[in-house]
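Figure 3 (text version): structure tokens given as input.
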């Protein structure tokens, strides 16, 4: 399989090695996109939609290899959101104490019902806060992605042909990128 087929088509099957290669490529690209959004221009955030689609394609094919529906990716996505939120909240005060203090000040306004002060605070500090949060965002993203990638790579492959096609490496499909 070539990179285009692995990343841009949700049909077919891929084995654990091809999955991990595609997953690592996507994770590195997404991390660079996040850094571009924080340090260069917010327009980089629009690229995340393309990355979401590519993650769906890679996970769908891996789930197909395990004989499962690609729709189960939604469970992976929910799990990722939960794990990422927990990891982010744990790492926030440790990695970026200044950003944590800013967050606490913002939530203080919100909890007191002072939405005008909360909005003003966020408008004045949005770029400072985004840059201050970047180490925590990147660390939580990488740790959560590692968990997700590990689980995806450990799915048992169906050794026989299934409704999604022949096993990777048979029927003209290569096991790795070409």
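Below: residues designed for each position.
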């Amino acid at each position: 399989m070539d990179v285009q087929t692995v990343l841009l088509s949700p049909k077919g099957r891929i084995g654990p090695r091809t999955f991990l290669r595609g997953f690592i490529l996507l994770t590195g690209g997404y991390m660079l996109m996040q850094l571009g959004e924080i340090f260069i221009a917010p327009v980089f955030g629009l690229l995340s939609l393309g990355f979401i689609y590519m993650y769906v394609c890679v996970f769908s094919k891996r789930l197909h290899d395990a004989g499962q529906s690609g729709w189960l990716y939604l469970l992976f996505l929910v799990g990722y959101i939960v794990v990422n939120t927990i990891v982010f909240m744990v790492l926030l005060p440790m990695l970026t104490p200044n950003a944590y203090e800013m967050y606490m000040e913002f939530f203080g306004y919100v909890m007191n019902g002072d939405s005008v002060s909360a909005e003003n605070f966020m408008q004045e500090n949005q770029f400072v806060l985004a840059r201050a949060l970047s180490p925590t965002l990147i660390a939580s993203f990488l740790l959560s992605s590692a968990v997700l990638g590990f689980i995806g790579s450990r799915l048992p492959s169906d050794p026989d042909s299934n409704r999604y096609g022949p096993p990777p490496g048979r029927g003209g499909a290569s096991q790795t990128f070409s």
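The first helix runs from residue 3 to 8.
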